[in-house]
Amino acid sequence: MRFLKKHYHWIVAVVVFLMLAIDGGTINTLPGLHVVPVSEDMDISRAQFSLAISLKNLVAFTSTLLSGVLMVKFGFRTMATVGLFMSAGAYFFLSRTNSYLGLALGICAIGLSAGFCSMSGANRIISIWFHKHRGAVLGFVSAATGLGGSVMTVLQSAAIERDSWRASFLLAAILLATMAVVLFLLVRNHPQKLGLLPLGDGEIIEHKESKHHQQLFEGKSMQELLKTFPFYLMILCVFLGCLCVYLVSQVVLPYLQTRNLSFSQASGLYSILLLVMSGTKFLAGVLCDSIGAKKVTLLCLGFNLLGILALLFARGYVACLAAVLVFSIGLPIVTVTIPLLGVSVFGYKAQAEYSGVFLSMTYAATIIAAPISNAVFDAVGSYVPAFWGAFGITVLAVILHLLLFRLVKDNA
Fold this sequence. Notes:
Layout: H1 2-6, H2 8-42, H3 46-74, H4 76-94, H5 100-112, H6 114-117, H7 119-129, H8 134-142, H9 144-162, H10 165-186, H11 201-206, H12 211-215, H13 222-225, H14 229-249, H15 252-258, H16 263-291, H17 293-313, H18 317-329, H19 337-346, H20 351-380, H21 384-407
Helix pairs in contact: 2-3, 2-7, 2-8, 2-9, 2-10, 3-4, 3-5, 3-20, 4-5, 4-10, 7-8, 7-20, 8-16, 9-10, 9-16, 14-20, 14-21, 15-16, 16-17, 16-18, 17-18, 17-19, 17-21, 19-20, 20-21
């Protein structure tokens, strides 16, 4: 027991990993896996189902925006537990509803938990428990969404084939409720509750002049940040960095089919993208610990540029596979680098508040990206113009990030 208590940090990390795997995995399967069986059984259009998903993302944007304030007041443990039970209740409701209004309300309710059970909440609790290896641990837990999506796809598709989409939603409800109980029993908001220090704090005390200590500078309060130009510049940088990714990633499967790939080939490459993304998230976290979040962010943007170009000119399966692999290396910019870059640029003093603001930009980008890319396709019969637009936005994001780093170069 003494050994477990001493290394309780890793128990917290594993629980957060499982939370993201189950909650993020079920959210990832919601649009793709259920659109056909739900729309056909309820006699609604796929556009109506997609509208409910868009409304869910809008709710998730608001939830993530407010998550920092609520977590400061009530703590991660309470808010994440409430969020998981809320999602469980929403999926249970979805398994029983027979109307489109009920379907839309249930899906929107899932978005309420996003600010507490997604990367916003995970970043807060990991930052509290880990002052050393923070990037590696954050990369590890963020990889859970991709891996969880793969596992939940197998489990929920089996439930659909064996019974119906209602059984799939009921399975999600049971797993989420179980996860809520596990999280409440095992996670504590602060290591001091167990008589521990954040991992690495002893080393910081002994080596106050170390690079690691310097990276954890206090920074300004949220009230002070709201009066500075770099804060708003980073909001724009995060939004553009996510938008250029989602303009491509959310339509990459149908785009690959326009490259003369079959549906099975395109879906296989998309699965590869998710798996590679999981590995690159962990790698990006490790690199953030060693070379800094600023350099890793620029590296991700660089791979996004190369990946988009490769996708634009890819012809045939092998070329598309290579393009997908290159593009997937830059995907950690939408999860891992955002919270780590925030600490590097603005310090940890207002981390709880600004993390919610920055991560809410990922949902803002999600809300508009797919509709823009699909609208372009409807207008001209090709995703190519949308991909060129994503390339231009990535170039702009690189320029604005460089400006941001120049303005705050004395902070890290």
